[in-house]
Specification:
single chain, 245 residues, alpha+beta, Phosphorylase Kinase, domain 1, Transferase(Phosphotransferase), domain 1, 2 domains, 6 helices, 9 strands, globular
Length: 245
Amino acid sequence: MPNDGYLDDSVHWKVRNGLVDFAEPTHSEVADAILDCGLATEVGQKLGSGKEADVYLCRDGKMLRVVKVYRQYRTAHKGDRRIKLESMGQRALREFDLLSYAWQGGARVPEPGRRNENMFSMQYLGNATTVAPMLQDAVLDHPEAFLQQTVAGVESLAEAGIVHSDLSPFNILVHEGLPWFIDLAAGIRVDRLGSPPWVRLNEAIRALEHGSATLARYFRKYALTLDTEEMIHRVRAKVDLYRLE
């Protein structure tokens, strides 16, 4: 559940008893871990890899699911730099929380499933034969309408109290002609207390400025102009409501 701490005592037990192997598990070992903790009943191919995690196509009974697995000791871009298993569990927990809040707030994100340690399941986007493509790889039939839906989606995230800190064509999937936002690992909760509101809101706006510029560059290939100032203004109108919290 959102806001719960990282309570997987099995992580500490494994470390204390020398059961942690400081090498990344094989596909078979990852599959066994997913099955053992009940996140899926069948594990298929790896769909992709990010900086810190891999994504697997799975089946939970008759339903296709996606399971995201944070790599335990190193990232794709950090060579042999080891990262504690518990740290990866914390990162999985944080992204799962953000995904849950976004989905509960009505944003167009994959429906969250369950989490266990450094893994969590979520809704599969695609059909029986093809996964939904990233915007970067898609050919849009109605690019102008898709642009409008993308801006509306960013606003919807803001209404849920979240600003995506890495808006790009790589973190938007095209499913049933609509934009779906993924990879909320570094999302910013603008409605959460902790740091002063002006700090987190200014951080969110800076991230939004960068993301809107990235999207503007993408849509230029369709001869479309994204009014980044208007987009930021509209989103800021949503997130500014949280200054009073």
